Amino acid sequence: MAKIKTIFVCNSCGYESAKWLGKCPACNEWNSFYEEKLAKNSDGSFSEGKKTKSAKPSKLNSVEGKEAVRTSTGVGELDRVLGGGIVKGSLVLLRR
After folding, report:
1. Which of 3 and 78 is assigned the larger pLDDT?
2. Cα angle vertex 90, ends 85, 93, to 5°?
3. Where are the domains of the chain?
4. Among 37, 64, 70, 82, which is least packed by CB within 10 angstroms?
């Protein structure tokens, strides 16, 4: 089994660290580190594995809505707030 090595890379400048840091010492950005796993090759060198970098945010006005089948709850005001009912596979938290 290949040995896995974890490093943390600054999203802004590419600085690498063995541990997660809150502030990058190279570019002074806060919370810019993401985890990257490296797999050890048979020759002893490390190569990039799957990156665990999160998705980049997008502007709200650039997101296109998709129509979904909604199921009525039987409560008129709740259906109105939910846009016509509950979408299958969604989660709605209600507070009394």
Report:
1. 78
2. 80
3. 4-51, 67-96
4. 64
| Cα–Cα distance for residue pair 8/84, rounded to 1 Å | 45
**Cα 76 vs. chain centroid, distance in angstroms?**
35
Q: Residues 4-39: pLDDT tens digits?
A: 788 999 998 889 999 999 999 999 999 999 998 887
Question: Which residues contact residue 11 at a Cβ distance below 8 angstroms, ignoring those fewer than 6 apart?
Answer: 29, 32, 33, 34, 53
The backbone torsions φ and ψ at residue 73, rounded to the nearest 5 degrees and listed phi first, read -90, -15
**In contact, 85 and 79? CB cutoff 8 Å:** yes
Instruction: Name the residue with tokens 């409560």.
Output: 75
